[in-house]
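Dear colleagues,

For the upcoming journal club I promised to circulate an example of a predicted protein-ligand complex. I picked one with S-adenosylmethionine because it came up in last month's discussion. The inputs are reproduced below in full, followed by the predicted structure.
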Amino acid sequence: MPRWRNADTALPATISGQPRALTDAYGRVATDLRVSLTDRCNLRCSYCMPAEGLEWLPAAEVLSDAEILRLVGIGVRMLGITTVRLTGGEPLLRKNLEALVAGLAKLHPRPSLALTTNGIGLAKRADALAAAGLNRINISLDTLDPTTFSRLARRPRLPDVLAGVAAARQAGLEPVKINTVLMRGINDHEAYDLLCWAMEENVQLRFIEQMPLDAQHAWQRSEMVTADEIRAWLSEHVRLVEDPDQVISRGSAPAELFRVAGTDYSVGIIAAVSKPFCGSCDRVRLTSDGQLRNCLFSRAESDLRTPLRAGASDDELADQWVVAVAGKRPGHGINDPSFLQPERPMSAIGG
Ligand code: SAM
């Protein structure tokens, strides 16, 4: 069993009679479900996992398509889930992803469907994914330099990722968002180059602060490139002003948007560590082995797979889901002295 598995965290099975909304004690309502389709990945980004990879989940532990469709169906039909983001690991490694997307698109009410991917292989699949019902896509891209890409991701796949970005746009998977993590001394000098490229390509760039979710537990606050630094570096080249769409409310958007003055382009910075936005979090996560997590940084999980495979009813599974979200803590706690990184790494949670 991988060392991050925590067998005794299942919550009580039912609380029949409770109203079914995914509400927590702080008034937040979860409507955005992140579903990890696999813990496997074909890159080895140094801020995510070690060069040798990880011990992958055995196939028997991973939810089947039918199990995912059933659980997501409960989420949209009984619990108010409106957005489903497929992630991983690398979700394009999941066999028959197009069929799974098509199945999700048939759910009632139909959720908005998004995918977070490293883009490898997307060039050949973007059209089919869009035809299956995928609405939006986030593609991870940390550098435009092939040598830096090979160093950071430990695989020489930059051309595949760029081809994936082009194909996503051509397939109409708008808006194409680009997730970028800057690492000090590796790609931190590329912030402005990436912005110029994103403006040229008409894709929405989002810088994400590096979070303590790497499998190696090597994250160091002092090494992390902060949101303020990124903003300052960009401001050496362009004037950034408040994004007009966020003047009234940022809603639950993790990214703070900055308009590049004189253009209609906005760049996002996700200050997950330095300026947490937990107060407006509307997310809940389902891992590829069927564990519900009410926070990326949670150290407890609620096992849905065991009751699912033991014949639990939709009502029982929905009730367990309600309990799991009700216990969500007010914040991720990264900045508390007592913070402990979750055992399960980002690649096995689903980012
Ligand atoms: N393989 C897919 C991809 O590359 O987008 C989906 C999974 S990946 C874990 C999702 C996102 O998490 C990527 O944008 C990746 O850069 C980001 N990520 C991974 N580890 C991270 C960390 N420690 N801090 C911040 N972002 C991280």
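Two points we might discuss: The longest helix spans residues 65-78. Confidence is low (pLDDT under 50) at residues 1-14.

See you all on Thursday,
B. R.
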